Amino acid sequence: MLSPGQEEHCAPTKEPVKYGELVVLGYNGSLPNGDRGRRKSRFALYKRAKANGVKPSTVHILNTPQASKAVNCKGQHSISYTLSRNQTVVVEYSHDKDTDMFQIGRSTEGPIDFVVTDTVSGGGESEDTPITQSTISRFACRVVCERNPPYTARIYAAGFDSSKNIFLGEKAAKWKNPDGHMDGLTTNGVLVMHPRGGFTEESKPGVWREISVCGDVYTLRETRSAQTRGKLVAHPPGYPLFTILSSLMLLLLPLSSPAHSIHVLCAVFGAGASGALCFTVCRMAGPGPGAVLAGGVFAVSRLVWQWSVVAEVFSLNNLFVGVLFSLSACFHCAESVHHKKKFALWGALFCGLSLCNQHTLVLYVVIIIPWALLHLYTHNGLSFFGLVSLGTCFLAGFVPYIYLPISSYLNRARWSWGDQTSFHGLLTHLLRAEYGTFSLAKTDENLNLIKMLWAQWNHCVNDLSTPVLVLALLGILLSLWNRLRCVFIWLIVTMVSIYSVFFAWRANLNIEQPLLLGVVERFWLQADAGVCVLAGLGLSWAVCWLNGRLGRGTLWNTGAWILTAGLISHMISLNHKECDQSGNDVVDRFAREVVLSLPPNSLVLTRGDLPGNTLRYLHYCQGLRPDLSLVDQEMMTYSWYVAKLQKHLPGVTFPGRWWDPINTMEKKTFSIEQFLKHNMQTVC
């Protein structure tokens, strides 16, 4: 910690860069040997004269205690994960010139910048004060601030001691992430909470989370020092249109199981999306190999294939992207103002309808709308009545949103998310405020924009192939000599570019972890559709250009068909093994074995996507084990959960409005201990 004099000495004389302040709310206990001029309840984080941040570098897997000591004594920062008496993983950290590190804890040793000590009960201290186990670790946590704008600050559990080491013993919660990197939790834990409504007088307590040693965010553990970590933060479901269409599918075309029916529906959406891209190229350049290339490459690319055979909103979003591209092409190529107005009305309707499924499409819609209005204006096709008609069609597309408050009011769904009976609840759901509006997670994680864009570029090279990217670039170049082509091409380029940059800015997940990369890359599909259209147009216009310059149109056309067939065949052979999951029943077998093993009339507390969703599917959708009561632990922390779902859990007693793992004594809340006591006879 820095004293006022030290702050002035370390901070630059001209406009010191201040990252922020750490403030202790309440009373910060005194130090045993005096405070030595230190501020006990406030600490300002200034940019250091010299960076002292560190970042992971070398990983050592050691099988003897002597080897572990040898690594830890090298004078470098390191984190040791003791897996057993005979095995330790040591991660060395190297100097990071781009970050400053500040450490917090109750230790008075040099590495601690901000000393936080325990509060003595009763408001006083004496020799008779009983000694209790501290809830504050000696080296509790560290805050790492980027030295360059926007000066992002991240918090990590555990701090480095005087020997520059962090030790996680055998009893500490630790694990290996899917990418092979180690992570863990400290005994006392480091908890964070972001108030709902921001930091204002009207803000309400948010949901408490726990930070790991490597800075990931998890739900709370069962107990403070439990060796099993919480789960990565879950997120609310999509929007009403997908739910409505899925219900219609189950009603009109029931197959072997509800999951099978919805998977078929999503596959149809995926096929429709590919067909729409094919039609877009046909409308702009005529039928031929370019149109087949656009639709075919998109259909058999890895990500499109993966997300067109599962019950998710992404295949329907792909369909809307294709439809908007098709309508834009028809609008652009229409020969009369009357036809342009007709396609504009259809486009307005589908713009509104598409936003009932996934709100990332708004980044395309906000570009298409002014482009279409400007196009009508330049052709003398814009009038007051026309604007009213377009606005009416656009608003008509939002009609499916009426389903949300009606469904919430009737409260017939045995499993749902949120309370949309009030305007605030509806707005919270629409903006996904509980999960982070226009973000992938409600965390302060913020990766480098260039790094995210580079990852998307690598995806395009690996999954769409280099020839497709070359053809897309060729399409852009060939459009420069034709005004009609150029306008449409640059519409697509603008949409893809703005979407990619905006998403890279808001995608606040660490893509260095394969699991989180899988979450992020699904959103690249929307940009992939534009790239495939550009590639299809590039191939079609290249054939026309070669035929016009060199003749022999049949030769160039045949070559284009061969190229198209070769690319699509290559992608099918490359992706079929990974994407064909027709024989994979691991999740189904897991869920059935768990459900069938439970005693009669059990109350089952679920946590996490895998056990929670699979058990609920078998229980609610397939009617397996109707005697069970399924309660989601994380959902109990939301104020709407008990109010909306208690009537569907008649055998379960909730001793309050919601479970608050931290403030268990507040009104309307309850602890997990109280919940178990009220339901002890049925707990499993």
UniProtKB/TrEMBL annotation:
The chain crosses the membrane at residues 262-282, 289-307, 313-331, 343-372, 384-404, 487-505, 525-548. Keywords: Membrane, Transmembrane, Transmembrane helix. InterPro entries: GT117_domain-containing, Pellino_FHA. Residues 13-234 form the Pellino FHA domain. Pfam families: Pellino_FHA. This is Pellino FHA domain-containing protein. The lineage of its organism: Eukaryota, Metazoa, Chordata, Craniata, Vertebrata. The gene is LOC109071591.
